[in-house]
């Protein structure tokens, strides 16, 4: 029975005991033993309460008792700082009304409340997150409350971190461009993102819980889903065609697929994640490009065939014309006017023949029929042969030509085709240079791996807009003031094709119209040992200069 001297803890201990009625006939010794056992139990219970890792306190609006865990939780030095203070003062102002309501509920219903999350105020004003449970007790006709409190700050931090992570994942899931759906092992849709719903023509609510193949029936796709579920092997497809059965007006659509199985803790397949990317526009564009390319190839093949036939047809009458010129030269009287006329005819026939030959070679390259006979080639000999061929034309055009070569620069190539490329560059320089101009041809090695042939002129130059297109067929520079010669661009196009067949490159440079031009051919050099073999007798490279006057 409680006495005036009992502490709140003593009251809680007594109310927690269940001693039961004692028979009057019980022997005194037995009764004394029971009392001794009861005292021992009380001491044990007192220790359990005092040493409990969770806060245990008794209050009737003011704290009557608090254990050491509670003292530590509230940041007090000892229990005396807490006992006697209003219980609500230790609760954060935001939670006081809730705490009051639960305390009143416990007193009213006479049973413990559920655990309730709260925020407590420590003595230093800091906040600690807890969950509390109130249990009503009745002592000497007065209602008191035992409150159990356990700190949940760490747990709440983890929960908040998980919530932040979940919000981030939800934001990513709902905003990615891919169409994503998660479904159970029976292919019932569990979750979809907004992109998936929009692409399917349904709302998210209409899709959740529905079977994927009821919504989108397709036997082939269903077999794929079943295979992924049964084997646990993911499935990836590119530009997979699909027709919406309920939306045939959309036509054939194309999708990149990624179907991935999701395994449970025991390794069993619990569901599937389907990721789709709509590539319909890209795939239709790709197919259209393929169609246009096929048409273009057909047109190019027709063009190449036409050029080949045209070249032959144009070349056939040139041979008898040239033969006739030779006959006329032998039989006509030695008249200056007649001689100049015959020379003019001969010169133009040869120019026309070269043009037709270039055109014929281009058509052969396009059809892969132009043959190259590769061997060790000395570039100085290629240049000198080309210069000798064009020397007369340069003199007739009133141009001076200077040649600087470095003997011993050896490449692997077709001597005749390389000479043809240099000839075309020289022809181009002569054609687009005015009387009194200069042409400079040189060879050199910018490094140990490459050799270059450079043809410079003081001619009409090249507009910046044409520099990158000058080697295209039919892209010859337009006429400029004071110079009406233009061309078809066949010669430069052939130069580019020939040099590329030798694993080289060619480019043009010019400061603009009227400022001349510079064409450079770059070819891979062969090794030093190979150069020595090709030099025939170990010729030491040196600079050889030859100037051909006007």
Question: What can be said about this structure in brief?
Answer:
The chain is an alpha+beta fold and 550 residues long.
Summarize the structure in words:
This protein has 550 residues and is of the alpha+beta class. The protein folds into 4 domains: 8-19 and 28-156, PAS domain (Beta-Lactamase, 2-Layer Sandwich); 176-278, PAS domain (Beta-Lactamase, 2-Layer Sandwich), CATH 3.30.450.20; 285-364, Helix Hairpins; 371-548, Heat Shock Protein 90 (2-Layer Sandwich). It has helices at 8-16, 28-50, 68-73, 96-109, 153-175, 194-200, 204-207, 212-215, 219-231, 280-315, 318-331, 336-366, 379-396, 415-431, 490-501, 528-534; strands at 55-59, 63-66, 116-121, 127-139, 142-151, 179-184, 189-192, 235-242, 253-263, 269-278, 375-378, 400-405, 410-413, 438-444, 450-457, 505-509, 517-524, 544-548. A hairpin with a 5-residue loop joins strand 3 (116-121) and strand 4 (127-139). Helix 11 runs antiparallel to helix 12 and helix 14 runs antiparallel to helix 15 (490-501). The termini are far apart. Mean pLDDT is 82; it is low at 1-9, 11-26, 478-484 and 534-550.
Low-confidence regions: 1-9, 11-26, 478-484, 534-550
How far apart are the termini? 139 Å
Number of strands: 18
- Major sheet: 6 strands, mixed
The number of distinct structural domains comes to: 4
Mean pLDDT: 82
Brief descriptors of the model:
disordered N terminus, Helix Hairpins, five-stranded antiparallel sheet, disordered C terminus, six-stranded mixed sheet, Beta-Lactamase, 550 residues, 43% helix, alpha+beta, 16 helices, elongated, 4 domains, 18 strands
């Amino acid at each position: 029975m409680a006495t005036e001297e009992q502490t709140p803890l003593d009251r809680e201990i007594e109310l927690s005991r269940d001693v039961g009625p004692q028979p009057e006939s019980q022997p005194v010794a037995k009764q004394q033993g029971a009392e001794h056992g009861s005292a021992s139990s009380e001491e044990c219970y007192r220790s359990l309460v005092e040493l409990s890792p969770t806060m245990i306190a008794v209050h009737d609006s003011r704290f009557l008792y608090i254990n050491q865990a509670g003292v530590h939780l509230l940041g007090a030095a000892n229990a005396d700082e807490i006992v006697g203070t209003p219980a609500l003062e230790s609760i954060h102002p935001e939670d006081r009304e809730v705490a009051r309501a639960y305390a009143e509920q416990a007193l009213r219903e006479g049973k413990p409340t559920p655990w309730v999350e709260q925020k407590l105020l420590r003595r230093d004003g800091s906040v600690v997150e807890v969950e509390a449970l109130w249990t009503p007790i009745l002592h000497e006709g007065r209602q008191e409350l035992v409150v159990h409190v356990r700190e949940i700050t760490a747990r709440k931090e983890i929960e908040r971190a998980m919530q932040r992570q979940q919000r981030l994942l939800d934001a990513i899931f709902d905003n990615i461009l891919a169409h994503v759906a998660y479904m159970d092992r029976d292919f019932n849709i569990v979750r979809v993102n907004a992109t998936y719903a929009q692409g399917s023509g349904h709302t998210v609510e209409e899709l959740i819980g529905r079977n994927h193949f009821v919504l989108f029936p397709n036997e082939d796709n269903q077999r794929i889903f079943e295979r992924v579920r049964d084997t646990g092997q993911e499935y990836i497809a590119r530009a997979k065609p699909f027709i919406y059965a309920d939306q045939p007006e959309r036509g054939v659509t194309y999708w990149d697929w990624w179907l991935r199985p999701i395994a449970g803790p025991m390794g069993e397949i619990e569901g599937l994640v389907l990721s789709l990317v709509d590539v319909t526009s890209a795939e239709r564009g790709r197919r259209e490009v393929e169609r246009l390319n096929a048409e273009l190839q057909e047109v190019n093949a027709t063009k190449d065939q036409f050029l080949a036939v045209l070249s032959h047809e144009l070349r056939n009458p040139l041979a008898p014309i040239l033969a006739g010129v030779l006959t006329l030269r032998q039989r006509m009287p030695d008249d200056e006017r007649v001689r100049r006329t015959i020379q003019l005819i001969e010169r133009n026939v040869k120019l026309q023949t070269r043009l037709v030959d270039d055109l014929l070679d281009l058509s052969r390259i396009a059809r892969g029929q132009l043959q190259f006979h590769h061997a060790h080639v000395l570039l100085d000999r290629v240049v000198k042969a080309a210069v000798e061929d064009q020397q007369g034309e340069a003199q007739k055009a009133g141009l001076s030509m200077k040649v600087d070569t470095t003997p011993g620069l050896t490449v692997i190539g077709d001597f005749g085709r390389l000479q043809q490329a240099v000839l075309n560059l020289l022809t181009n320089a002569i054609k687009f240079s005015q009387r009194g101009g200069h042409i400079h041809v040189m060879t050199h090695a910018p490094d140990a791996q490459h050799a270059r042939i450079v043809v410079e002129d003081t001619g009409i130059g090249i507009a910046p807009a044409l520099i990158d297109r000058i080697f295209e067929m039919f892209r010859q520079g337009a006429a400029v003031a004071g110079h009406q010669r233009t061309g078809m661009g066949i010669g430069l196009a052939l130069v580019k094709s020939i040099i590329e067949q030798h694993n080289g490159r060619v480019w043009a440079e010019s400061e603009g119209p009227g400022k001349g031009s510079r064409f450079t051919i770059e070819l891979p050099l062969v090794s030093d040992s190979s150069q020595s073999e090709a030099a025939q007798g170990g010729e030491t490279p040196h600079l050889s200069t030859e100037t051909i006057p006007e």
